[in-house]
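Incident log, support desk, overnight shift.

02:14 A customer reports that sequence design results differ from what the structure should imply. Their input is reproduced verbatim below. On-call engineer (initials T.W.) acknowledged and began investigating.
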């Protein structure tokens, strides 16, 4: 479950500009709540459904997170602003990248 934390924190930059610290705080506090609440939940699943059933239910929970991650994308206007602030060059085609390295 902790592998989901880093991408969810990184995607926040595309959605929040004005209240980004608040969004980071809510996201990271949710991770702490999950780290405290999931171990007793896993014990409950193991005692109720056994090892196979608990793995199946935990994998279904993680798969929901994967589906949610596939549905998120940064807003176009804000992602352009972030590229401008970070001064990341945007290339329109492959030949611009080749010209950059050949010069």
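02:41 Re-run completed on a clean worker. Output:
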């Amino acid at each position: 479950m902790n592998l989901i934390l880093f991408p969810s924190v990184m995607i926040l930059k595309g959605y929040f500009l004005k209240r980004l610290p608040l969004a980071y705080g809510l996201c990271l506090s949710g991770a702490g709540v999950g780290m405290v609440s999931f171990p007793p939940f896993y014990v409950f699943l193991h005692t109720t459904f056994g090892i196979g059933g608990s793995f199946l239910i935990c994998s279904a929970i993680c798969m929901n997170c994967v589906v949610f991650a596939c549905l998120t994308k940064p807003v176009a206007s804000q992602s352009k602003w972030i590229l401008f602030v970070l001064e990341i060059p945007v290339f329109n085609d492959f030949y611009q990248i080749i010209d950059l390295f050949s010069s």
